[in-house]
Specification:
The complex is a heterodimer. Chain A is built from 3 helices and 10 strands, in the order βββββαβββββαα. Chain A is mainly beta. In chain A, strands 8-1-2-10-9 form a 5-stranded mixed β-sheet. Chain A is globular and about 40 Å long. Helix content of chain B is 42%, strand content 19%. Chain B contains 24 helices and 22 strands. The longest helix of chain B has 30 residues. Classes of the chains: A mainly beta, B alpha+beta. At the A-B interface, strand 4, strand 5, strand 7 and helix 3 of A face helix 12, strand 21, strand 22, helix 23 and helix 24 of B.
């Protein structure tokens, strides 16, 4: 696939923590949804491709964009912006789908742009403050600071575990 | 085959093969034993049982599974007596054989998993076998471990001087290198021959090269074996069964009457054989088949209770293998992964080809290339069928596991149950077969535990004390239909409803139809058993069964009459890989309808469409009224044709033989599609059985007509009425659906589902 996206911001953000410092180094892929920066574990990411049209699945929550064809595999795709309650993304060919593995499943995440690979020490990850009003907090697994900007770590397992992704007619009923 | 030594490198692999074989043999054994219990068994069945047990024993001996060998040996001894007609085949004996089969399976499982069974595992059965043996052999031969010589007289009254017909065979045997590569060993073959009768062996070393150029792993020796035996040519051939392709072999019968020869004392350990074939003109007093077996009997007997390594019984080894693969289909064992890969590649080929066809069509290709394309389509189709056929297997392999289950479970709950099976030869894709075992096991277990009453209850209800469960399979269109029918108590709908209410699954004032109440069985955490028993109530319910069946793209439904019994019907696609489909457009989306279920399509006139008072619409076709399903309602497709007069009604046949009409915008064309699972990466989507990739690379969903038929709730809510007349009718429909919502509610997560989150 030629849709592999070069990382435009690769050189703009400095790398945190050299690998020598600690063994508890983790790597994340960071991406933009709206004005916010999120990141997911790099180990979950299978590939990154440009946006292609999906076949919508009937009676799904709005953030479910349907399924796309990833070289013969049917991959359900989710609009992260919509998942966070910010309305559906108006897709353009410049939008990016991150193909990720979540609990043995392969899913696609529509984001605005992929930013960087972040290498961070475990102790740089700050816990998410206790915010009762934000129910979303439970799928936020931490916050890291990169160059004074805040990147929110997402737990895909919590965001898209089985049963959560579907709901279909049962939900509508 | 017996007692070959393996290099440690290959041991694990050989073991795996052995257990694969064991699994197959046990299935065969099970089936034959069932025939025996059903009293349809003939001597062929007995032979088959013997062969299965023997093969397991031989393999087990090679790997040193002593407990297994010991038990198999005892089992074999009993079977041997039965073949000789010394033990009559009675119901009691059949029961012992069946139990022994179970124990054998248990021991194989133990050997496979590497766990130790207690010393007395299966001892009850062993004792019963010993008793049976003792009756024919005399007690001492059972109790005294080795009575090798001199117990000929015990051998069921055979005259020791009885003489069989003998033939002299000249066997020219020249192994090729492959013979060694396949872990065979000429010495063992010759030993086996030795067990058949008298041998004279010549070894030809003329092909031996000089030491310098000799490859130590190549085969250079040839043998000429002159065998004097009472066995048939087939039995002699049998010895070479496994090496036939790896050697040059010529067997010829020289004379019917050989010159007497001294017993050949060769240096091998097989020398303990008595055989004693002093030749004579007399025909044997017993039948041909029984004679050799009886001849071997003493040695086998004596060894029965003792721990006996496999290599000690060469003669029996050979005769036991007699007549198995004569004729039959030749087959190869292939790793399933390889077949899967092939199936996938062919699937991709089909997609690529349909892309090409599309291109041809669009570019207005000339006649010739269209012609070529047609040819290619045909070839690819055939290729695909061939590939799919590789994976097809009769459902027998699953069905044959069930009788044992029925026996065990029935015994545990003190019920009398007989299992009948039908359509075992019906073929299904291998993956489907594998996935069937669990649901079927569960359903049958349920049927015995909850469905079938105790013998007393049955008699009180005027039924026969023996309950019946029928397991049947048949093809219907592109599906296989499997039914589990019991003639038990049926479902007590009142009790079911009460329980559902008490569990909060259904609200108290809900009015449910009988079907809806039956549906409750599939609700999670629902068990109809009055009490939790050893057999069921382990927290796995029919909801799991349904989920498993859904995972296969199938459906499960039930029908129950109180007091008469229950019938579960599974409808499962034959193959999980391809489908003949009709591509239809609904709005801007494209869907695939299974071609097999399409009867016809037409554009209705206005007067053909009627709204029903109870909700819903029908369309009349040649005087027949067919329910009209608006797919765009169910799927909430906004830009679809809503006026049936401008769309098309596709009339389809449903699993129960009924018809429904689906409203679509247009038919695009027929094509074969490769089914891709949605469930692999996603949860089941109601109304959709899978997806496929179209020629242009886009994904199209495959519609599931059965589910569409039963999808009311969403449509009511999603309906955007477009005309006043429809509004009224659909408002009613929505009301009807509101009731259904109660029923479908239990299938949702009891902990409450998370709705889309707003930050």
């Amino acid at each position: 696939m030629s849709e592999q996206i070069d990382n435009p911001l690769q050189d703009e953000v400095s790398r945190e923590a050299s690998p020598v410092e600690s063994r508890n180094i983790q790597q994340f892929i960071s991406f933009k949804v709206g004005d916010e920066e999120f990141a997911i574990d790099i180990m979950a990411v299978r590939e990154i491709k440009g946006w292609t049209a999906t076949a919508p699945l009937p009676n799904q929550p709005e953030y479910n964009l349907g399924v796309l064809n990833l070289r013969g595999t049917i991959v359900p795709t989710f609009d992260l912006r919509c998942r966070f309650g910010m309305g559906r993304t108006k897709t353009t060919p410049y939008h990016v789908v991150i193909i990720a593995s979540v609990q043995e499943r392969t899913i696609g995440l529509l984001v605005d742009a992929v930013s960087d690979i972040l290498t961070v020490n475990e102790d740089q990850i700050r816990p998410v403050p206790d915010m009762e009003r934000i129910t979303a907090a439970e799928f936020l697994s931490g916050i890291i600071t990169v160059e004074e900007s805040m990147v929110v770590l997402l737990s895909l397992e919590k965001l898209f575990h089985r049963g959560e992704t579907s709901s279909s007619a049962e939900l509508a009923a | 085959m017996t007692g070959s030594s393996f290099t440690p490198d290959n041991l694990a692999q050989f073991k795996a093969t052995f257990f694969d074989e064991c699994a197959e043999l046990l299935v065969d054994l099970e089936e034959r034993l069932n025939e025996m219990q059903a009293e349809t068994a003939d001597s062929e069945a007995l032979n088959a049982i013997f062969r299965a047990v023997h093969s397991i024993k031989a393999g087990a001996g090679a790997f040193g599974f002593t407990q297994l060998v010991e038990f198999a040996h005892r089992y074999e001894a009993l079977l041997d007596r039965m073949r000789d007609g010394l033990v009559q085949q009675t119901a009691a004996v059949a029961t012992v054989l069946i139990h022994a089969g179970d124990i054998l399976a248990g021991l194989v499982e133990a050997a496979r998993s590497g766990e130790e069974r207690s010393k007395d595992y299966g001892s009850e059965v062993s004792v019963e076998i010993d008793l049976l043996l003792a009756q024919v052999d005399g007690l001492e031969s059972v109790i005294t471990p080795v009575a090798a010589q001199g117990c000929d007289s015990d051998g069921g009254g055979e005259e020791p001087d009885r003489q069989p017909d003998t033939t002299v065979y000249v066997i020219d045997f020249a192994p090729r290198t492959e013979l060694f590569r396949h872990a065979n060993e000429p010495l063992l073959l010759i030993r086996e021959l030795k067990g058949l009768g008298d041998l004279q062996i010549e070894c030809f070393t003329d092909r031996l090269p000089g030491l310098r150029v000799m490859e130590p792993e190549d085969a250079y020796l040839r043998w000429r074996v002159t065998l004097t035996t009472d066995k048939s040519l087939d039995e002699v051939r049998e010895v070479f069964e496994f090496v036939e392709d790896d050697c040059e072999l010529a067997i010829s019968a020289v004379a019917a009457e050989p010159e007497p020869r001294e017993e050949d004392q060769d240096a091998t350990a097989a020398g303990t054989r008595d055989a004693d074939p002093a030749p004579s003109v007399e025909a044997p007093a017993v039948t041909d088949n029984a004679a050799p077996a009886a001849d071997d009997a003493p040695a086998t007997d004596g060894a029965a209770p003792s721990v006996q390594p496999a290599e000690e019984r060469p003669a029996k080894t050979v005769s036991s293998k007699a007549a198995p693969q004569s004729g039959g289909v030749s087959s190869i064992r292939v790793d399933l992964d390889r077949v899967d890969r092939l199936v996938n590649v062919v699937g991709e080929l089909v997609i690529a080809h349909s892309m090409q066809s599309q291109l041809n069509l669009n570019s207005g290709a000339d006649f010739q290339s269209n012609q070529n394309n047609e040819d290619m389509t045909r070839v690819i189709r055939e290729l695909q069928e061939c590939v799919m056929a590789i994976r097809m297997q009769p459902v027998k392999s699953v069905f044959s596991r069930m009788p044992r289950l029925v026996r065990e479970v029935a015994a545990k709950v003190n019920k009398q149950v007989r299992l009948l099976t039908e359509g075992e030869q019906t073929e299904v894709d291998k993956t489907v077969i594998e996935e069937l075992a669990d649901p079927l096991t569960h359903m049958i277990r349920n049927a015995i535990d909850h469905g079938i009453e105790t013998p007393e209850e049955r008699e009180a209800a005027g039924k026969q004390p023996m309950g019946k469960i029928k397991l049947s399979a048949r093809h219907a269109g592109g599906n296989i239909i499997i039914q589990v029918i019991d003639n038990g108590a049926g479902i007590n709908k009142e009790a079911l409803l009460k329980k559902a209410i008490s569990k909060g699954i259904v609200s108290e004032d809900a009015k449910l139809t009988d079907e809806e109440i039956e549906e409750l069985i599939f609700a999670p955490g629902f068990s109809t058993a009055g009490s939790v028993t050893d057999v069921s109530g382990r927290g796995v319910g029919m909801d799991v069964v349904r989920r498993n069946i859904n995972k296969l793209g199938g459906r499960i439904s039930l029908h129950s009459t109180q007091g008469k019994g229950t019938c579960f019907t599974l409808t499962i696609p034959l193959s999980l890989a391809v489908l003949d489909g009709m591509l239809v457009a609904i709005g801007s989306e494209k869907y695939i309808l299974p071609l097999a279920s399409i009867i016809e399509s037409f554009r209705p006139q206005g007067e053909q469409i009627r709204a029903l008072a109870g909700g819903g619409e029908v369309v009349s076709m040649r005087g027949e009224y067919i329910r009209l399903i608006r797919v765009h309602h169910l799927f909430n497709i906004k830009d679809a044709v809503t006026d049936p007069r401008r769309g098309l009604v596709v009339v389809t046949e449903t699993a129960n033989g009924g018809k429904v009409g689906l409203l679509v915008d247009e038919l695009i064309g027929q094509q074969q599609v490769v089914i891709k699972s949605i469930q692999e990466n996603f949860d089941p989507v109601p109304g959709v059985s899978g997806a496929t990739i179209l020629g242009d690379g886009r994904v199209a969903l495959i519609l599931d007509i059965e589910q569409l038929k039963t999808m009311p709730a969403a449509s009511g809510e999603l309906w955007r009425p477009s005309s006043a007349a429809q509004t009224e009718q659909l408002a009613e429909e929505a009301q009807g659906n509101g009731q259904n919502a109660h029923v479908s509610a239990p299938t949702t997560d009891p902990e409450g589902r998370q709705l889309p989150i707003t930050v």
